[in-house]
Specification:
The complex is a heterodimer of chains A (428) and B (100).
Chain A lengths: L5 E6 L3 H12 L4 E4 L14 E3 L1 H6 L12 E10 L4 E7 L8 E3 L2 H15 L2 E3 L6 E5 L2 E7 L2 E10 L6 H5 L11 E10 L2 H7 L6 E9 L7 E7 L3 E9 H7 L3 H7 L4 H7 L3 E11 L10 E2 L2 E3 L8 E2 L4 E2 L1 H21 L4 H21 L3 H7 L6 H14 L9 H9 L5 H14 L1
Parallel strand pairs in A: 1-2, 1-10, 2-7, 4-12, 10-17
Antiparallel strand pairs in A: 3-6, 4-5, 8-9, 9-10, 11-14, 11-15, 12-13, 13-14, 16-17, 18-19
Helix pairs in contact in A: 1-3, 1-9, 9-10, 12-13
Chain B lengths: L5 H5 L3 E3 L7 E2 L13 H4 L5 E4 L4 E4 L9 H5 L1 H5 L5 E2 L7 E3 L4
Antiparallel strand pairs in B: 1-6, 2-5, 3-4
The chains are: A alpha/beta (428), B alpha+beta (100).
């Protein structure tokens, strides 16, 4: 059956999709959001944390009722060998100028979708999009099950596996080298137990990123985030690098949690969910075509993620791209012009808020991926040096310089350290 | 920390699986000629296993976390060659993340 035409169809009720729908509905645009989950949020997952500047922009009147978990006021960067670890533990108790909160997408996305619905958007969960309707090169609707739904504009916020856009030939297939796979455990605790374990108060949280033995020398690392009443802990590894390693990911996922520096935080918790998701880490060089006649691409589907090692961002970019897509759609409706030429405005809008960042970090994925020492030698060096510095065995004391020399001897030529450091300055 | 078997991990999740219609299709006979079997090491949910006894791949789509990593490590799934296809489950079926 063919229904009457709506103004905008959004594929995917994630952050980009629901943000766009919220904005469109607020502007009085007819918008339908189709999502393959039984309810919005059911298919969505993050590490993760959300930088809330994007929420300020989406909801200038406030988002105080958003189900955020804890404000991140403590940042831990850790390097680990199989047994030892060394961490840089930073505290910002009076909060940062750029706030971030830990989130769980099951709750958060349901909330954002409800906001969009409240504003007048129509949510259609439980609908997997099978394909696009394309006429004379213009996208003019979607197909789901037996139904066809027409629209002036289709906005894809379908996520990292952008099968709909890919199969319609609108974007080139994503290259495996630009993908990382993440898995996550959520352990339940009482709020008090987390406050006690992380030496913090209610509402305040910790973000921890670890590099080294946790990813078995493959580009990637472990993460840990404190939620209100749970801890998210997981592993992210480069898809191609892991394939080459021949190591069993599902087993290593258990192994890294046994590391004393991680186990001490999650010991005694009850597992309530085990999840996995892909991350588009290709950055600027892998950016697909973001628009075509009647069609815009947002969020993970557009590959809008930046991993700089110390910060990983994707969800704020998703929201910002959703806003930019909605603004473009509103202008297109006013002009009654859905051509590729008109929709280029979307890229111009994205330039200011998202693409600029991707450009700044255009070499960071390459740097992190191809600086092997980052995941092997440097964690060993750092923990080894610290161990030597803190070791007191009754023998005559050595100077710090001689300890450094001893700790690094034979492990790494100074030249390659300097080279990596220079590359880091340029790439991150 | 106690080590958790995959079944114990997946048992914590909520699924509404379509048991009869797998969303991922592999040709287990043709898989015998694969020279890397990366699906057996790269699936976070351990859905692909090599059955040594029968020298054949075993695959169970129930319990799939729908990440899509297999589509990137397996060239056949990636290209969707004859006997292989990768799709999301239809109309709300599959994993239901409550935490996410």
């Amino acid at each position: 059956m063919s229904d009457e035409k709506v103004q905008v169809i959004v594929i995917g009720a994630g952050l980009a999709g629901s943000a766009a729908a919220y904005r469109l509905a607020k502007a009085g645009v007819e918008v339908i959001v189709v999502d393959r989950g039984s309810e919005p949020g059911a298919k969505n997952m993050t590490g993760g944390r959300l930088y809330t500047h994007a929420l300020d922009k989406l909801m200038p009147d406030g988002w105080t009722d958003a189900p955020l978990e804890r404000e991140v006021t403590r940042e831990i960067m850790m390097m680990m060998t199989a047994e030892d670890s060394m961490a840089i533990d930073s505290a910002f108790p009076s909060s940062m100028s750029q706030k971030s909160y830990t989130v769980l997408r099951g709750k958060f996305d349901a909330w954002l979708a409800a906001k969009a619905e409240e504003a007048g958007a129509m949510m259609l969960p439980g609908s997997t999009v099978d394909g696009l309707m394309i006429r004379d090169g213009k996208v003019c609707g979607i197909k789901t099950g037996e139904e066809e739904l027409e629209a002036d504009l289709v906005l894809s916020a379908e996520g990292v596996n952008a099968l709909v856009a890919e199969r319609a030939g609108l974007i080139k297939p994503v290259n495996a080298k630009d993908i990382a796979v993440g898995l996550k455990y959520v352990y339940q605790f009482t709020e008090e137990a987390i406050n006690h374990r992380f030496n913090t108060e209610s509402g305040k949280g910790t973000a921890m990123l670890c590099a080294g033995a946790c990813s078995k020398g493959v580009s990637g690392g472990a993460f840990l985030y404190t939620n209100k009443e749970s801890i998210s802990v997981g592993l992210v590894v480069d898809t191609v690098g892991w394939k080459k390693s021949n190591l069993p990911l599902a087993d290593i996922a258990e192994e890294f949690k046994q590391h004393p520096a991680i186990a001490r935080y999650i010991e005694g918790g009850e597992l309530i969910e085990y999840s996995a998701h892909l991350i588009p880490e290709g950055g600027l060089s892998s950016l697909p075509q973001l628009f075509t006649d009647g069609f815009l691409l947002t969020g993970d589907a557009a590959g809008l993620v930046v991993n700089r090692g110390f910060t990983v961002r994707g969800m704020d970019y998703a929201i910002l791209s959703g806003i930019a897509a909605a603004e473009t759609a509103i202008e297109a409706i006013e002009a009654n012009n859905y051509s590729k030429i008109f929709l280029k405005k979307y890229e111009d809008k994205l330039q200011e808020v998202v693409l600029k960042d991707l450009k700044t970090s255009k070499n960071s994925h390459d740097y992190i991926g191809h600086t092997q020492h980052m995941f092997t030698t440097y964690p060993e060096l750092a923990t080894g040096l610290m161990k030597n510095l803190y070791s007191v065995d009754g023998n005559p004391s050595k100077s710090v310089l001689s300890i450094i020399k001893e700790s690094t001897k034979g492990k790494l030529p100074l030249f390659s350290v300097v080279k990596d450091a220079m590359k880091a300055v340029k790439s991150l | 920390m106690k080590t958790l078997a995959m079944d114990d991990r997946l048992a914590k999740n909520r699924f509404d699986s379509d048991d009869q219609n797998p969303h991922i299709i592999v040709d287990r006979e043709a898989c015998r000629t694969c020279n890397h079997r990366a699906c057996t090491t790269c699936c976070p949910a351990e859905r692909y296993k090599w059955d040594e006894e029968n020298d054949k791949l075993s695959f169970d789509h129930v319990g799939c976390l729908e990440c899509g990593n297999c589509r990137f490590v397996c060239e056949r799934l990636n290209q969707g060659i004859n006997g292989y296809s990768w799709n999301y489950p239809l109309q709300g079926a599959g994993i239901i993340f409550r935490e996410g």
